[in-house]
């Protein structure tokens, strides 16, 4: 069995339009890398973080907290050392914390001979998410671990379903370089919704799931709507409405807020359209004058990948 492993930890889009808190998807060419080594010293030691200024202390880093949750459920007597190579910016809305917490627990599980199921790994990684945002949400960590689209059908008991990924689906994500705290974007949400809004939302969730399984791109497009969260949260994101309409005009199937923002995502059929959407998004942000990162990616159906 290996003593050291290097993994790719994918970025993820959570809160996919109608699927607030329940639907997420993993990306293929945006993500961090992590090296995890077995050590005789007990516990978790984070020895290096490159690319971002994040805490090295085990209890303050999501990789450490998620790793400790796994260790406490394991009969392994030793510990682990972790090196984190961050490419996803923290607070971007594309699952920066989830990439680290899932990368840590999946790498450790592999080094221990895979004693834990994906569902158990999600539960360990959720402890990391709790450190990052105060809430044990699973909609970023589930797709990072299972790959593809995932539905968190229930939190109690935790029930995660991996959904089919249509072959030609591409994601475009623009990350404006502004900070929106997850806690702030949660605070502005109402805690109740009307029955009429509920009916629209669960109709769309059902439609989206059916569209993903049957690879019906028109149905996916019709279902990528959010009447509850997006109208409230989008006011925190400069030029959101313009980016959305430009993306749809460029041919996107749908467009919405990624996670709790500020990133905006669009899904498209085919790479060419996804690239046109990227150009349309950039044209808007070039006028707004806020710096941004932009990504075009296929869906990662594998989740955390072993590099070496
Ligand atoms: P995102 O919006 O990209 O999903 P989050 O808001 O979930 O990012 O997480 C970012 C928060 O988690 C920041 O406060 C950051 O300091 C904290 N954090 C702790 N450890 C890590 C880590 N290894 N990677 C990313 N963020 C981390």
What do you see in this structure?
With 308 residues, this protein is an alpha+beta fold. It folds into two domains: 166 residues, Ribosomal Protein S5, domain 2 (2-Layer Sandwich); 130 residues, GHMP kinase, C-terminal domain (Alpha-Beta Plaits, 2-Layer Sandwich), CATH 3.30.70.890. 37% of the residues lie in helices and 27% in strands. The chain is built from ten helices and eleven strands. Strands 1, 2, 3, 4, 5, 6 and 11 form a seven-stranded mixed beta sheet that branches. A hairpin with a 6-residue loop joins β8 and β9. α1 packs parallel to α2 and α2 runs antiparallel to α3. The longest helix has 20 residues. The chain is globular. 50% of the residues are buried. The model has no long low-confidence stretch (mean pLDDT 96). The structure holds adenosine-5'-diphosphate.
Task: Write a brief caption for the model.
The chain has 308 residues and is of the alpha+beta class. Strand 1 and strand 2 form a beta hairpin.
Total number of helices: 10
Task: List the ligand species.
Answer: adenosine-5'-diphosphate
Give the SSE order as H and E letters. EEEHEHHHEEEHHHHHEEHEE
CATH fold label of the largest domain = Ribosomal Protein S5, domain 2
Beta strand %: 25-35%
Report low-confidence residues grouped into runs of 5 or more.
none
| Overall radius of gyration | 19 Å
Name the CATH class of the largest domain: Alpha Beta
Proportion of residues in helical segments: 25-40%
Can you tell me the CATH architecture of the largest domain? 2-Layer Sandwich
| Shape descriptor | globular
Q: Which class best fits the helix and strand makeup?
A: alpha+beta
Ends distance: 13 Å
Strands, count: 11
Write down the domain tally: 2
Strand count, sense and closure of the main sheet? 7 strands, mixed
Mean pLDDT: 96
């Amino acid at each position: 069995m290996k003593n050291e492993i290097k993994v790719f930890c994918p970025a993820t889009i959570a809160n996919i339009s109608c699927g607030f808190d329940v639907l997420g998807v993993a990306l293929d060419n945006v993500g961090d890398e992590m090296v995890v080594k077995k050590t005789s010293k007990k516990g978790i030691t984070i020895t290096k973080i490159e690319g971002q200024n994040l805490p090295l202390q085990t209890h303050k880093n999501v990789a450490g907290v998620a790793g400790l949750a796994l260790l406490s459920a394991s009969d392994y007597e030793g510990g682990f050392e972790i090196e984190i190579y961050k490419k996803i910016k923290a607070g971007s809305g594309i699952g920066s914390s989830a990439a680290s917490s899932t990368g840590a627990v999946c790498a450790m599980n592999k080094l221990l001979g895979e004693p834990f199921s994906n569902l158990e790994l999600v539960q360990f990684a959720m402890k990391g998410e709790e450190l990052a945002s105060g809430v044990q949400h699973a909609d970023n960590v589930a797709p990072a671990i299972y790959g593809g689209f995932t539905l968190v059908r229930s939190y109690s008991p935790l029930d995660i379903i991996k959904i089919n990924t249509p072959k030609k689906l591409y994601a475009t994500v623009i990350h404006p370089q502004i900070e929106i705290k997850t806690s702030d974007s949660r605070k502005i949400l109402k805690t109740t919704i009307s029955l009429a809004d509920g009916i629209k939302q669960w109709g769309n969730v059902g439609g989206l799931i059916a569209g993903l399984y049957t690879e019906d791109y028109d149905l996916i497009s019709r279902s990528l709507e959010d009447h509850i969260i997006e109208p409230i949260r989008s006011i925190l994101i400069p030029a959101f409405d313009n980016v959305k309409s430009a993306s749809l005009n460029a041919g996107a199937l749908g467009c919405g807020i990624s996670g709790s923002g500020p990133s905006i995502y669009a899904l498209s059929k085919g790479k060419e359209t996804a690239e046109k959407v990227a150009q349309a998004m950039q044209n808007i942000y070039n006028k707004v004058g806020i710096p941004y990162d932009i990504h075009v990616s296929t869906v990662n159906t594998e989740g955390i990948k072993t590099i070496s």
